[in-house]
Design a protein that fits this description.
Blueprint: E1 22-26, H1 31-41, E2 47-50, H2 61-70, E3 75-77, H3 79-87, H4 91-100, E4 105-108, H5 117-127, E5 132-137, H6 148-160, E6 165-168, H7 187-194, E7 202-205, H8 209-219, E8 225-228, H9 233-240, H10 254-279
Parallel strand pairs: 1-2, 1-8, 2-3, 4-5, 5-6, 6-7, 7-8
Helix pairs in contact: 1-2, 6-7
């Protein structure tokens, strides 16, 4: 989906993608907003999550699901909704709900409730009979730290249980899980995870631009990113291909890199000269 040619632009995977996914968070879009979203960004959207339990109160839910199905964009209910059914002892009702709405994808998480990891894996295994399962790993609560080895073990076990992808939790704020409270990446944790879990199996929640840029710089244009705001899809795509300042030099060759260094040197010199002039 390029309107014109430009050299040194990384090749993006094509839909249906297994890597380079963009998961959009829908927190209550109207039908008209969905139409505008698909019209403006459809080719770059791989999957839509109806955030947390919003699907229960979303007006015209059946029309929304039918619209995305016609646009060939999969949709799924947020994991918090499933947790709400599980905590009430209504898991079988949730299965019937998925059947009622012909959901082809589902998410399971344990970010709000406590369950044993064995229980969670059993739910994943059961769900694979009905839909493609995405499992979310990590807590939504601030201050709850999970050791890297435990993250790895949980992700590995959930993939073994049948999950298609595992989501690395960050919450919609991007301040927990794989991030510090200030929103910066938990680098040690992330590096240890990718050393053991295949990168194309992980969807990193990246609601903030700086977080999106971090993962693109470290893992390339075709990293899986989630919790993307509907109005940020095109902006994210430009980050992915190096057409935004945060990743501008990421995919350029050495000659072009040297231009950046000269630029930076010139800017530093101009700043130094201005400071000297100001002091005088």
């Amino acid at each position: 989906m390029m309107n014109f040619h430009l050299s040194h632009v990384p090749e993006r995977t094509a839909k249906p993608r297994q890597a380079g996914l963009t998961m959009v968070m829908d927190k209550g879009l109207s039908i008209k907003e969905c139409e505008n979203l698909v019209d403006g960004s459809g080719p770059f959207i791989d999957i839509v999550k109806l955030g947390f339990g919003s699907s229960m109160v979303t007006p015209n839910l059946e029309r929304k699901l039918a619209f995305f199905k016609e646009a060939k964009i999969p949709v799924y209910f947020g994991g918090t909704l499933m947790e709400a059914f599980i905590v009430r002892g209504m898991f079988d009702d949730y299965i019937r709900l998925m059947d009622r709405y012909k959901m082809e994808y589902c998410e399971i998480s344990d970010g709000s409730i406590t369950m044993s990891h064995q229980q969670k894996c059993e739910y994943i295994h059961r769900l694979t009979k009905y839909a493609t399962v995405i499992s979310e790993v990590g807590s939504k609560e601030e201050g709850i730290l999970i050791r890297p080895n435990k993250w790895i073990d949980m992700m590995h076990a959930e993939l073994q249980a049948g999950a298609w992808k595992v989501i690395a939790e960050a919450r919609e704020s991007g301040t927990v899980g794989i991030y510090r409270p200030n929103g910066k990446a938990h680098v040690v944790l992330i590096n240890k995870i990718v050393a053991k879990i295949p990168a194309d199996k992980i969807i990193w929640e990246t609601p903030q631009k700086s977080q999106q840029a971090y993962f693109i710089k470290h893992f390339g244009a075709n990293v899986n990113l989630g919790n993307i705001a509907p109005n940020e899809v095109i902006a994210l795509e430009t980050l992915r291909i190096g057409l935004r300042s945060d990743t501008f030099f990421q995919f350029l060759d050495d000659d072009m890199q040297s231009f950046r260094q000269e630029n930076e040197s010139t800017e530093k010199k101009e700043t130094t000269d201005k400071n000297k002039t100001a002091k005088v």
